[in-house]
Amino acid sequence: MTGTANSVKSHLSPKEKRSVVLASLRRKIELLGSWLEDGLPPGQTWKKTVKEVSEWEDTELEVTRWKSPNITAPSGPNPNEARALVALLKQINTPAATSLEQENRELKATVKALSGQIARLARQLRVSERDLRIASAQASEVASATQKMDDR
What keywords are annotated for this sequence in UniProt (predicted)? Predict the structure, then answer.
């Protein structure tokens, strides 16, 4: 999932690039914070260093990479975001108080994913039941019409 965001950024003015990078930094902070609360989603990995965060690019998650270390420097253009990121990375790199806390977060993420799957399956079941009722009614009509023709 790389390449697309960077090729788009190459056509932007410096001001627009800064805006895109800042939005991406904020989105990464949002995602990491959410994952700390709800558990790491399936298929994702923890970003444990500023470098890993800066290299993280995922178009589906709407995050892009940047090269300048100044972006996340405490004295750089985004000091509040830099502090927030460092605080998150400290939490990520601090072992959970117990393995049960980590397991609990992971189970919450699994439950959330399964709840979505159950909702989708319930919708599919309702559609299938409706389609079955329609098909049964049509089959009854055909059988009735066939019976009438046979009776003649």
Answer: Coiled coil
